[in-house]
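ok so I'm stuck.
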Amino acid sequence: MTSNSQVISNLKPALVWRHFAALADRPRPSGYEQEVKTYVIAWAEDNGFKCYSDDIGNLIVKVPGRGVGVEAEPVILQGHLDMVCEKNSGVDHDFFKDPIQLRLEGDRLYAKQTTLGADNGIGVALSMAAGDGVYGDHPPLELLFTIDEETGMSGALNLDGRYLAGRRLINLDAEEEGVLYVGCAGGRDLVASRRLDWDAVEPGTLAVRLSLTGLRGGHSGLDIIKNRGNAIRLLSQILIQLPRKGVDLRLCRFEGGSKRNAIPREATAVVRIRAELLARLPEILEAQMSELKKLHTDSEANFDLHIEALQGDDIPPLKETIAQGLLSYCFSQATGVVTMSQSIPGLVETSNNLGVVTWSEDLVTVTSCSRSSNGAALDQLCDQLASVAHLCGLSVRSDAGYPGWLPDLSSPMLAITKEVFAEYYGREPEVTAIHAGLECGILGERVPGLDMISFGPDIQDAHSPDESVCTESVAVVHEQLGHLLRALC
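replied:
not stuck anymore, here's the structure
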């Protein structure tokens, strides 16, 4: 098997890709970043850099300035160590111990059947390469590597700002090369749940598993505007409509998705139907799928529904009120774009992702990830979701969420970065906000007075097994970062 170091051996800049391959070799699910932290700490010690860990587990590496930047004001380079762990159905990969297997296709780097971790491994690798001295002159650098960004941002939320002297910050967690980000959405998770109760198995019925697969999924912020299908919502729609097609059913089990901030690609249900209806079921479902595909003609091409008859009578149906409440809640959620920004053309203001339905012996849990750059709109959306949940018989809890990052178009960092980008591209760069949960909003609260900018390379389909990064774009961002750091001397 080809090693990750062999896959990236001819890519430039070499130091960036060497660090990225090392990160890919080490497991880093959210909350389990110890192996990559050990790698970063060892690298810092080898270079004689001071490295600190705050109480929550974030790392801060202090890199002295070089050349004309020795006495300059420090600059913080910030990224997160964890990654979203998604894999295709049936793939044998343990994210807690197996390395990510890299594969190169032309100028794009992918993983084999799993998420790549370019979000935000590329940002971490760019920061470490800067610390290696590839740029010559640069100000003192404070490399801030946060933990648990993808499942709650607890690292940023609990950052000990006393370790940071700098008040100029470059966030390297953006995913569109050539664009400068000066704002982001805030977000909140809402968790609805219901205790389960069962009826007896009716004679003459059999259990059938329905599996909806093949959807593209993606990042619940960046890709939400692309009208991609949500597997949980689509399957709940199918189940609600089946009785109107002549197929009475009793729901036994329903689950889907794996990450609250990833658009769910797969969902499954187990239902009981009259045995004589099994022969008609494929034809009826095929007609339903045809109608659903018309809703996503531009965004989805390959999703499908699989039918499997199950043996035995040991799978009882849910009480009807519980089943109908669960399906109604999943189907009635506002899933996808809720409103567009009125001030920034093409920017999603508010969205919701019906992310995960999990199942235990006596409890079903539905987790939604809501985002908005408008705090009042976010509150309203979460209140609406909670109201629908209560009507459907589910109890609700919501986390405190995280704040958005309000744009400051008078920012000195923005002015300098615009000049650097304009010189590089020969045109004014696009300046906008992003409908995703960058840590900048939180960091601005934890470290008052931060002047922040965010940019990064071209990353596509983050949070899904189709995630890829353009290798040429990484080289461009590496060069731009060097120009900017020299300008900040």
